[in-house]
Amino acid sequence: MDISKIKFDDKGLVPVIAQDATSGEVLMLAYMNKESLQKTLESKEMVYWSRSRKVLWHKGDTSGHIQKVKEMYYDCDADAILAKIEQIGGIACHTGNPSCFFNKVI
């Protein structure tokens, strides 16, 4: 992935959708800055930018539920990233749920 093509917002961030590479289930939405994207590409494990803590966040550092990158794509406008991942331990959400998208609207 050529990160020079990615259009980061005015805060230096780009939204990232983490999707289970096998099932296709959307697991979470997070954000990356240039440094976290570079570290993700180098390590093949998801590294995000924590907007609340203002630090790099290697997914699974404390929980052990790391996300191994299988494929990554950027969208047609180059302002969003889709990461197809292998979720180790089956839990993506900090609440203990497999996916962050468990609150049904309709």
**How many discrete structural domains?**
1
Q: What is the spatial order of strands in the main beta sheet?
A: 2-1-6-5
The name of the CATH topology is: Ubiquitin-like (UB roll)
CATH-assigned homologous superfamily: Phosphoribosyl-AMP cyclohydrolase
Estimate percent helicity: under 10%
In whole angstroms, the N-to-C terminal distance is 37 Å
Name the CATH architecture: Roll
Q: Topology as H/E string?
A: EEHEEEE
Number of strands: 6
Rg for CA atoms: 13 Å
Primary descriptors:
106 residues; Ubiquitin-like (UB roll); two-stranded antiparallel sheet; mainly beta
Structure, briefly:
By secondary structure, the protein is mainly beta.
Write the layout of secondary structure elements.
Layout: E1 14-20, E2 26-32, H1 34-43, E3 47-50, E4 55-58, E5 67-74, E6 81-87
Parallel strand pairs: 1-6
Antiparallel strand pairs: 1-2, 3-4, 5-6
Protein model, in words:
This protein has a single domain (3-90), classed as Ubiquitin-like (UB roll) (Roll). Helix content is 9%, strand content 35%. It has one helix at 34-43, and strands at 14-20, 26-32, 47-50, 55-58, 67-74, 81-87. The chain contains one helix and six strands, in the order ββαββββ.
